[in-house]
Amino acid sequence: MVIRGKSTITGLALTVLVGSVLTAPAHAADIIGGSALGSGVIVNSAPGIDPLPATEAQSYLIADLDTGEILAAKNPHEQLPPASTLKTLTALALLPRLDKTANYIGQVSDTKVDGSKAGIYPGRAYPIDSLWHALFLLSANDSGMALANAAGGLTKTLTYMRSEAKRIQALDTVPRSPHGLDKPGQVSSAYDLALISREALKREDFRHYVATTKYTFLGSGKGNKPLPIYNQNKLLTAYTGTIGVKTGYTTQGKNTYVGAATRNGHTIIITLMHLPYGRDALAIKLLNWGFRARGKVTPVGVLVEPLEGAAKLTPKAPANAKIAKAEKAATQSSGISPSGFPIKLILIPILLVVLLRVRVRIKMWKRARYRRMKPTAS
Fold it and tell me: What's this model's pTM, rounded to 2 decimal places?
């Protein structure tokens, strides 16, 4: 572990080694955000500032959201499974592209995911806005798939996500899904998650979704019922000034978290990855340390600015042709009508009515034929 400190005696930068030999990181000059952001714990000490909290988290970062100054970090560029914090990149890529007032027709492929689900049902219509609420509050993985399909499919969505990561210089991030469930080769870093969230927080709609504490998701499951959902980010109600952002957990990624809070006009953002337990407790400790240290410790690096501004996109609804195709495929494969009722229950009374009308017509035809054939009296 490497700790970078500052001597209060000489005023010169001093490096203190704890349990290892100091070695300059390979290609230090190429490290995004600053050459100090290598491995180990990186922090500059300052009078009156307590040491960083001890933790089993494999990686974390504490930064000033407004200035981008990184106050402290641990293995900030180590590539690790991001779990559901990857949904922040999904939002950054798709929020500008999808019309939140439009409807999306659920597809069978939306349901083929594990983990948390909102209960998207094939053939049923859902507002895009509702899918975003489910994605952030419930961390619904079926909602992630639905948003990807609404944007043109998984392949296109991953292309958009990779493009956004490259634009903001989140070069440690390799997306393989829109929801963050463990996938071979899918990684991000504490540094990248801070970059992604900082860029996304420039959007008012993103801030709205990540700060919403409860919502009613309509049309959940086979029963087509309203589902009350609550934000899994407990700090929204437990930590003063919290403005989001996203929790995460998978078997390979363990606990991951991106959080931001504002106090006295200043906002601190923290990220943590691969933590066995104690996510909320550690998040609070990191935020507290950040607020105390801001303006007192010398930054160890910076959250870099995007290479270029966000593209000026016009949000679009899913194409009508795609909706019709999705609806047809869903009804054929699932036996569900767009209204959410099983097709058999709809067809049975229709068939009975048709059969009854045919039977009546046959009787009428027989009577007419009998009258034509019967001799008339003179």
Answer: 0.80
